[in-house]
Write a structure and sequence with these properties.
- This protein has a single domain, classed as HUPs (Rossmann fold), CATH 3.40.50.620.
- The protein has 10 helices and 8 strands.
- The strands form 2 sheets. Strands 3-2-1-4-5-8 form a 6-stranded parallel β-sheet, with helices on both faces. A two-stranded antiparallel sheet has the order 6-7.
- The chain has 225 residues and is of the alpha/beta class.
- The chain is globular.
- Helix 1 links the parallel strand 1 and strand 2.
- Helix 2 runs antiparallel to helix 10 and helix 5 runs parallel beside helix 7.
- It binds adenosine-5'-triphosphate.
- Adenosine-5'-triphosphate (ATP) binds next to helix 1, strand 4, helix 6 and helix 9.
Length: 225
């Protein structure tokens, strides 16, 4: 089984997240992916953070309105059930412990998040436990594939291990005793949750940035005003 784990604040979930998970699922033939909202993100400001239950509900509504995701994407409340900050290492260990032994985990994350992974708790252990699928994040640096690959390589060598090298036959960075790191070019969608919160706060429309059901939910609950 090939399993994708896509964590985030999802404050709120948007079409950039949805398109990315859809394309990664297809590109890597993943059997299942989990969308995992964090309860207390260790790296983000919390002033605009919607209640975890509301963020979770918006993810449910978004997945339910996406035919391509309905069958193969599960919304996980594992981080919401844990107390304290939501550390990815704890989440990866959780999935390792509940999935069949031969499952292969892929942590899906944007380039912006990947390039600061050395600030995450027990990040070196992550490289032993899960493969990575890094996706481009429009608006962060260059959109040129070879420049992005170079930045990933420099970062891996400097902050993780000199032993990472690009394998042209496997199209990823490989290491003798760590898990591979893939870069996967999803269609660029320049949306962020920050932009959505700002638009709502300014009374502007967020149509086409989030699924209709999510937009309705935000309006009904009066979120991000
Ligand atoms: P915020 O603007 O509040 O910081 P965000 O839009 O970055 O939020 P997160 O929930 O923090 O959303 O993101 C979860 C993951 O999704 C991260 O790995 C992030 O890099 C990735 N991501 C977010 N938006 C996009 C996008 N438009 N395209 C590709 N990846 C994205």
């Amino acid at each position: 089984m090939h399993i994708g784990l896509f964590g985030g604040t999802f404050n709120p979930i948007h079409n950039g997240h949805l398109k990315a998970v859809e394309e990664v699922q297809k590109g890597f033939s993943l059997d299942e992916s989990y969308l995992i909202p964090s309860a207390l993100p260790p790296h983000k400001e919390q002033k605009d953070l919607a209640d975890a239950k509301n963020r979770m509900e918006m993810i449910r509504l978004a997945v339910a309105s996406c035919p391509a995701l309905m069958k193969s994407v599960t919304v996980s409340d594992v981080e919401l059930k844990r107390s304290g900050p939501s550390y990815t290492i704890d989440t990866v260990c959780h999935f390792k412990s509940i999935l069949p032994k031969d499952s292969r985990l892929y942590l899906i994350l944007g380039l912006d998040a990947f390039l600061e992974i050395d600030t995450w708790k027990s990040y070196m252990d992550l490289f032993m436990l899960t493969s990575f699928i890094v996706i481009p994040r429009p608006g962060t640096g260059s959109s040129d594939r070879s420049i992005i690959l170079k930045s990933i390589e420099n970062y891996l060598k400097k902050s993780i291990s000199h032993g990472y090298n690009y394998s042209f036959s496997q199209s990823c960075y490989i290491h003798s005793d760590k898990q591979p790191v893939f870069f996967f070019d999803v269609s660029p969608i320049n949306i962020s949750s920050t932009k959505i919160r700002k638009l709502i706060n300014q009374g502007m429309s967020i149509k086409s940035l989030v699924p209709e059901k999510v937009e309705e939910f935000i309006k009904t609950k009066g979120l991000y005003l």
